[in-house]
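User: Some background: our group keeps a shared notebook of sequences we're curious about, and every so often someone picks one and asks for a predicted structure to add to the entry. Today it's my turn. The entry only has the sequence so far, pasted here. Could you supply the structure so I can complete it?
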Amino acid sequence: MFDKSYEYVKLLNLFPCFENKKSDFVRYNMNHPDILKLKSGYNIDSLFSNESFFENIFAVIKWIKEIVPYKTSRYCLNDENFSGLQLLDQSIATNTRLNCSGYAKILNDVLLSQGILSKCVWGLSSDLRDTECHVFNQVYNPQTRNWMVVDPAFGFCAIDKNDNYIDVAQLRECVENQESIYCKQTKNKDYDSILTSKYMSYIPKNLFMFGTFKESGAVYNPSKNQYCYIVPCGYEVEGYSSFVFTNNIGVLY
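Assistant: Of course. Here's the predicted structure to add to the notebook entry:
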């Protein structure tokens, strides 16, 4: 399963440790004007008609994929400062596709419009010069009272071998230990084995460290002290004084 990414898995095991302390680093922009406009302009409330939290999540992912095509390309619409609303408006107006970052921002802002805690998470390699990262969401489920990985670009929620929805730290730990994670795309159906195999070959590179914004929702401005890198203990970073660095993965919770 890990043939193509064996070296990345080895690297995860060389730097497996993070601190995990309670943090109030992230502030949620639930009442930002762009969040409110997104909610009313795109009738977001209609996507949350199910009692099941998971069914609502899957409904939103399906809606995003239907309204805006996905493309893994640098030539897609990817203004790093755009809110979810701006990305939707511009991609529809110009018939332009979005990449994983765009999908994650839209999902993030949609969830925040419903009062659901969510953060965009940049999954990064060990080389900060490597711009080929992957972006997904860390979402708080108020029904189960735990955080979970939701990947709108791939269209799934991550679960472990026991069918438990898992968070960012658990996702990384599974890959470190070469344990399978599974891609669940609906509430009632089993995971997608083909998608799971593809994801397990792709994701190890992008779990070495993580990034997130100090303000979650609408404001995605990587200015000084607004973007945080979460790096494993023992990994030294130099020459990036414009950003916040921490070993505390609790920033994502």
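Suggested note for the entry: The two ends are 29 Å apart (CA to CA). Helices lie at 6-14, 33-41, 53-67, 84-94, 100-113, 168-176, 193-202.
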